[in-house]
Amino acid sequence: MATPKRKNPHQLLHRKPQYQIQPKIPAKNPMGPNKSRTTLHLARQNRLGPKRQHQIRYQLLKVRRFALESEDVDGGAYPRTPFAFLYEMPRCKTILQSEFPYNISARCINQEWFTLPMNRVWNIMCEELTYAIKDKNLVVHSFVLMSNHFHLIASTPNANISSCMLQFMRRTSLRLTREGNRINETFAGRHYKCILQHPNYFLNAYKYNYRNPVSAGVCTRVESYPFSTLPMKLGLTDIKLPLAEDTTLKSDLKGTLEWLNTDIDPLRKTALRFGFRHQFFRSRINKHNKQPIISMTDRI
Prior knowledge:
Layout: H1 18-21, H2 42-47, H3 50-61, E1 70-73, E2 76-79, E3 102-107, H4 118-136, E4 139-145, E5 149-155, H5 161-179, E6 192-195, H6 199-210, H7 212-215, H8 229-234, H9 247-251, H10 253-260, H11 266-275
Antiparallel strand pairs: 1-2, 3-5, 3-6, 4-5
């Protein structure tokens, strides 16, 4: 009696060919079959639940297929070489609220500098912010323009931050592209926004944004940077856009300027950058004591 062949215990040596693992989609129709005809590989289909099978079928309908060659498999023509799966990028839904301010930032594409002079870019930004203030009821607390990005702290009494930033980014990008004779778009995708749900988080973002030119080595003091709303509040430059009342600066002018011109600890600066990338501000955790580097009671 012949002994049965012993299977190799290593799983990778028993993998099926790639064309059997891929979903079986006829190559004759380059746009893919209808939803009712979309089938999965039988072995793969048995391992998945009905909900996951429906999700995969829905994703297959939104795919662009680039079949380079086809081969007869089980009597039918199926793509042997790849087709690219272009799924929609997952993104958290924007939280629309009117209670807390947002910390917003956006950067130029490929981190390139603005092609126009900074004076002209500053005037365009201020004009479009003024238009958003009048049209969308946007409330601007602070604004700092750098050579290839900007920092903005704003509130939305109408809970319409998405429409405000869509209008501002689109109109600003269009004007900068036309006047700068650019072919590509100006900004690198979407902007980042973070809800500052505590007054100390607001003050930390307030200081971080105004100290950005000092950290970059552009100037030595925060009030000497011309492309910022701080000189406007101090009366050093012309007021080019309506701003919200700055109670922090108004309560103690000298003490606030001294606080703004104090350097930030590098560890806390890294924690701030980490926190600004979330929907709500969330500090980075210290690896040693497992506590947030910046808590609600901390002011940088």
